[in-house]
Design a protein that fits this description.
The complex is a heterotrimer. Chain B is built from 19 helices and 21 strands. By secondary structure, chain B is α/β, with parallel strands linked by helices. The C terminus of chain B is likely disordered. The longest helix of chain C has 30 residues. The chains are: A mainly alpha, B alpha/beta, C mainly alpha.
Chain lengths: ~350, ~550, ~300
């Protein structure tokens, strides 16, 4: 008995919707099993992990704050992956964006003006773009694999950040802690109503809507999709793979850089060695879970933000390690990919070895 | 085998085949999902017989032989070998029985050597050096010489086919199945192949010869089975039929004859190529050398050639996917455009249809309305189309519908994905999409490859009509029948060099063959084959 | 630099290169069969934590080695199911494998942080190991170092001189043809993927059992990715892989060495050397290969669905 794949004549529209939902449910079940395996009460743990984050206003606010960088990075990556360009270095672009934007408080601390924050954000975008242009150019000019190059640069970026905040950029009045000066009011993102919810989410939603329009209604979006699905047809249409590579790397890098500066200019409030719990990598999962569609990414980002919050809550309430959140995210991506198969193929169970009948 | 004998053996409980037949298939059925490729097919072949399996594209020939060879399993039906029932579970079992198969698409490994390729197809190979020697001997003996240590990637298509054939010969087959073998050969190479097959038959080996080339079948085969839409429609002796009667049996009706062409009136030059050089851009690519041609309004210029001689490279150079080294190398409607890209050449009024419809001419997962935008973006996006132009979906839809009805594109839903269409229908759409633009120059590569006869006739008629309307049409094709049917002038491409164009009524099959084989290095066998034919007094 | 310092540097280079060589060898075999497994980092780090955990609880580093290989192979199983049986995108699945491996290893390894490990002993062959300088270098290594070299030779021989290797290369070159000839593409690739997983696990195990016998979260620090780059750099030839692995090991150690010299170069810059050199190597090898893409297994990364 074996399972055979039968190709569907067309993509199944039903499965395109159902697949992420099935994947999430399967992850929840797997999660329950993992919890049981490490000796924690599964149902209670699942509730704390997945449902409690929605239960209070404060936690919903936290969800949105955590989802903001995931949306910003995720929508950029969704476009890049649609074009079959694998930017895996978003974490590094995030870091460099934070660094570039962070130069303003470090070097121009006295410059107090409405445009200060704007300059920081612009520099953040620029930083992300600069870091992303490296793998793009190396791929175009030398054919170097963009996955490996962008990934290597993540490590380089983190080491760069580490060196700067421990060395040249360290706050001289900071008691030798590895951090820069704290950002002043005018250097941080404005908040709504005194909580932690800041303007960043508006930027994220604007980016998501803008890219959704780009992908669905414009020639550029068409170009992205063609080059991603059938590069030869793309060339036949007059599109250039090289220019597309540059475009999506700059786009996703710029957005990742923006996410970086928004994060340090709000939640963190300064530059320090650790500014991200792996947003750049989680955003990859967000992009896939969101079916590589900017609006889907928004929903997926909220779901993955839940896993961060749930992980923290589970740690406090049940003593489950916060690494569990990372495991969940990995399991989720696996299920998403597995369920995606059903969009293009039907599963058939075939009994016995096939043989001519009647012999 | 008579009806009473069949009934008798079935009544006896154990069905047996008829011993006088080497291989027999009874009631073979193969279904893929809802589609029935073979519908209760009966086939019988005697030892030493060259048996043709006729049918047009999509009739089910390849499916049938794959079941005989074990690559596919029948949904129902029985196979008998020398009178005994057998189950051919996989190609290994087929080889054990003594069945060899040469596929239309070779199962070769480009990065490996000839010996390694053959070793993979055989079982129990212990000594590679001994195998290499055997390959050298047997291949030379049968007139298909091979260098055992050559890497497949470096070999021509005809030489690659020899690997496939020698691989079978080494196993001393009783039945050799050949699927469209001459599709990739020059006429001289085909002659050599026939000599080899006739020799095999005289040694007692049966040959199952799949083809839709009727003149060949008439020349070579002793018996034939004709398939149409998955069913057997007749069994005839091809030597006693005419090509026309065979064609009628294959298609089921008189094939719609192409309207006779009017005398060509030479118009202004639409496309001019001047000494175009293009270096090879990959290890398996062909460099174009000083290619020159002139295409006038109102004419169809056909470029004949066996696959792998630079056709794709020439197409890419003409379409603009690969740019020339100077503007004047390619001139469209009087504008030098050698350095311009595809879109710019389209704005000059040129249109292109590539060889590969899925993946090149159309995006498989996209709907027809989206595929329309692929080559016609100037129509559908407003200003700033390159960057942010908004798509006009309504117009794209209308165009797709218009093209579909004008070119008889049969599809299940109003706007299906390109890959759900059959080959013929998708090709009609892709060609129609370009013709809908009323281009001044059309360059098309393999217009009817893998397309059913009805669609092929429609496409060829469309090309003739387009030329009659005043456009210049350049057809690159491997199908010599098609070329002689529609072309006004014929040129031949070989090893990246293009011959001058000759008027069609001056060209003969022989001349085309010689021009094709021009750079193939005359081996004594090819020359010998030519002499034999001359002695036979056969003229084409 | 005096002889004992030079010897110390060379010995460290060997220990730095061995995990790269082990993991890269496994990935080379997988890629030769046409499968691109980006999950090497995840499988390596799982091997590291499994090896450490088992060695610590049983007291035997040799059991730890076995556990490391098994852990790597086990983690490769979901990858195989997804990419080979369910035809999922190999790039995305490999990434998922890495994320899962990093998370899972962090979870399992939490209780082992800070605990001293069991170190894999270096061999001592009486007589040979005592030869000054050459002795410890050539005859005084731990068993995994010798295993890595032996495996490199074995893989090279099997891939190029045996029928099994011929089938492997054929499947990676043209899976459609291999299937038409009756070979089970899926089974060959499963074997290659599991081998790749076991080797990656071994490489990770080496880190926590010999290189620095302790468990630190994410202790592979990108070595899995470097191993992937190494496979490309070696043009899928095991002999070149050995050279590449040792070159990269040398670069890594160079950083520490320069630091030790007390030159005022920031530690982080030196730590980033292996990553920068990896990028440079990728650029060099890709430019040089430019025209001759013939050495890449033609079906690398392409999914395969048999028609029956």
């Amino acid at each position: 008995m074996r399972i055979e794949l039968e190709k569907r004549p067309e993509r199944s529209a039903v499965m395109a919707w159902a697949s992420p939902i099935i994947a999430v449910m399967a992850t929840v079940v797997t999660g329950g099993l993992i919890f049981a395996a490490i000796g924690k009460p599964p149902l209670q743990a699942l509730w704390i992990f997945f449902l409690e984050p929605f239960s209070s206003l404060w936690s919903i606010e936290e969800l949105i704050v955590k989802a903001t960088p995931l949306i910003l990075i995720g929508v950029g990556l969704s476009v890049a992956y649609r074009a079959n360009v694998w930017n895996i270095g978003a974490e590094g672009q995030f870091t460099v964006g934070a660094l570039m934007g962070g130069m303003v408080p470090v070097f121009f601390n006295g410059w107090q003006s409405p445009t200060t924050l704007l300059a920081m954000l612009a520099l953040g975008v620029l930083g992300g773009m600069l870091w992303a242009v490296i793998p793009a150019v190396l791929k175009i000019k030398a054919g170097a694999n963009e996955i490996l190059v962008s990934l290597m640069l993540v490590y380089v970026a983190q080491l760069l950040l580490d060196w700067l905040v421990r060395g040249p950029w360290r706050d001289p009045k900071g008691y030798n802690f590895p951090k820069t000066v704290g950002f002043e009011d005018w250097q941080t993102m404005p908040v709504f109503g005194g909580g932690r919810l800041n303007l960043g989410i508006v930027l994220a939603i604007v980016a998501a809507i803008g890219l959704a329009i780009l992908m669905r209604r414009t020639m550029k979006g068409f170009e992205v999709r063609v080059l991603g699905e059938a590069p030869r047809a793309g060339r036949f249409a007059g599109f250039s793979s090289d220019r597309m590579t540059l475009f999506v790397f700059l786009l996703s890098g710029g957005l990742a850089g923006l996410a970086g500066i928004v994060e340090v200019a709000s939640t963190v409030g300064q530059l320090q060695p650790n500014i991200s719990p792996g947003y750049g990598f989680t955003a990859i999962i967000v992009a896939f879970l969101g079916r590589l569609d900017p609006i889907g990414v928004v929903v997926a980002a909220l779901m993955l933000a839940v896993s961060y919050l749930g992980g923290e809550a589970a740690q406090v309430a049940l003593g489950i390690s916060d690494k569990a959140a990372r495991v969940f995210q990995g399991v989720l991506l696996f299920w998403v990919l597995a369920c995606d198969t059903l969009i293009l193929y039907r599963l058939r169970i075939v009994r016995g070895a096939p043989a001519a009948e009647g012999v | 085998m008579s009806a009473s004998e069949t009934a008798a053996s079935e009544a006896a409980g154990t069905p047996t085949g008829t011993p006088e037949f080497l291989v027999e298939a009874r009631g073979l059925v193969k279904r893929f999902g809802a589609f029935t490729a073979n519908d209760h097919v009966d086939l019988a072949i005697r030892p030493g017989e060259i048996h043709a399996l006729l049918g047009e594209n999509g009739a089910g020939k390849s499916t049938l032989v794959k079941m005989l060879y074990g690559s596919l399993q029948p949904t129902a039906g029985r196979i008998f070998w020398k009178g005994e029932p057998v189950v051919v579970t996989d190609p290994g079992r087929a080889r054990d029985l003594g069945i060899g198969m040469v596929f239309q698409h070779f199962s070769l490994f480009e990065a490996l050597t000839v010996t390694e390729n053959i070793a993979l197809a055989l079982t129990g190979v212990k000594d590679m050096n001994a195998l290499a020697d055997r390959i050298a001997t047997v291949s030379k003996d049968y007139g298909l010489p091979l260098e055992p240590r050559a890497t497949v990637a470096d070999l021509s298509v005809g030489e690659r086919q020899r690997i496939e054939i020698v691989r079978c010969l080494l196993q001393e087959p009783k039945l050799l199945i050949m699927d469209e073998p001459t599709a990739v050969l020059t006429p001289q190479e085909a002659d050599q192949l026939f000599l080899t097959l006739e020799r095999l038959a005289s040694e007692g080996c049966a040959v199952l010869y799949i083809s839709h080339r009727l003149e060949e079948v008439k020349r070579l085969c002793h018996a034939s089975t004709i398939l149409r839409h998955g069913k057997v429609v007749d069994r005839v002796d091809p030597r006693k039929e005419t090509a026309a009667s065979l064609a009628r049996l294959m298609v089921g009706a008189d094939v719609h004859a192409i309207r006779p062409k009017h005398a060509r009136v030479a118009g202004p030059t639409r496309l001019y190529v001047d000494q175009l050089d293009l270096p090879a851009n990959g290890p398996f690519a062909v460099a174009l050398q000083k290619v020159s041609l002139e295409l006038r309004a109102g004419e169809i210029l056909a470029i004949a050639g066996v696959a792998g001689n630079g056709q794709s490279e020439l197409f890419d150079a003409l379409s603009g996917e690969r740019r020339a080294d100077r503007p004047g190398a390619v001139v469209i409607e009087g504008t030098p455009c050698g350095l311009l890209g595809v879109s710019e050449r389209r704005t000059l009024g040129a249109a292109f249809v590539p060889e590969e419809r899925l993946g090149h001419g159309a995006v498989p997962a996209f709907r027809l309305s989206e595929n329309v935008v692929l080559t016609r973006d100037t129509v559908f996006a407003d200003a700033g189309r390159r960057l942010l132009g908004f798509l006009d979906f309504r117009r794209a839809d209308e165009t797709a519908s218009r093209v579909s009805s004008a070119y008889d594109v049969r599809k299940g839903k109003p706007d299906p994905e390109a890959r759900s269409l059959s080959g013929g229908n998708l090709q009609k759409f892709v060609v129609g999409r370009e013709l809908d633009r009323k281009p001044g120059v059309l360059v098309v590569n393999q217009p009817t490859w893998g397309v059913d006869a009805g669609a092929a006739a429609l496409i060829r008629q469309a090309l003739i009509d387009l030329a009659a309307d005043g456009a210049g049409v350049l057809v690159i094709s491997q199908d010599l029948d098609e070329i002689f049917e529609i072309a006004d002038r014929i040129a031949v491409i070989s090893r990246g060099a293009l011959s001058p164009g000759y008027d069609a009524h001056v060209m003969t099959l022989e001349k085309v063959g010689l021009l094709m084989g021009g750079a193939h290095g005359g081996s004594e066998h090819i020359e010998g084959a030519l002499k034999l034919r001359e002695a036979d007094g056969r003229a084409y | 630099m005096d002889q004992s310092a030079l010897l110390a540097v060379l010995l460290t280079i060997v220990t730095a290169s061995t995990p790269l060589l082990l993991a890269a060898l496994g990935e080379l075999v997988a890629e030769r069969s046409g499968v691109l497994n980006l999950g090497v980092e995840g499988m390596m780090v799982m091997g590291a934590v499994a090896g450490f955990a088992v060695a610590l609880t049983t007291g035997s580093p040799y059991l730890g080695i076995v556990a490391a290989a098994v852990a790597g192979a086990l983690l490769a199983v979901p990858f195989g199911v997804l990419t080979l049986n369910l035809v999922a995108n190999q790039v995305a699945t490999g990434l998922a494998l890495t994320l899962l491996g990093l998370g899972l290893s962090g979870l399992i390894g939490e209780r082992f942080v800070g605990q001293p490990g069991v170190r894999l002993a270096k061999l001592h062959i009486p007589g040979l190991s005592d030869i000054p300088f050459v002795g410890p270098l050539l005859f005084g290594q731990d068993v995994l170092v010798y295993l890595s070299i032996a495996l490199a030779i074995a893989v090279s021989w099997v891939v190029f001189r045996t029928r099994v290797g011929l089938i492997l290369r054929a499947v990676g070159d043209n899976h459609a043809s291999a299937h038409a000839l009756g070979y089970s593409v899926i089974r060959v690739r499963w074997a290659a993927v599991l081998f790749g997983g076991a080797m990656a696990g071994l490489g990770g195990g080496y880190l926590s059992l010999a290189y620095t016998p302790q468990w630190i979260e994410n202790m592979t620090a990108g070595r899995g990715w470097i191993a992937l780059a190494l496979v490309v750099f070696s043009s899928w030839l095991p002999s070149r892989l050995v050279i590449g692995a040792y070159l990269f090991g040398a670069v890594t150690i160079l950083g520490f060495f320069v630091q030790g010299l007390g030159v005022g170069v920031p530690a982080q810059l030196l730590s980033s050397l292996p990553y920068i050199v990896t990028i440079a190597a990728l650029v060099v090898i890709s430019t040089r290969r430019g025209r001759a893409r013939a050495d890449t297994p033609a079906c690398l990364g392409q999914p395969f669905v048999p028609d029956r």
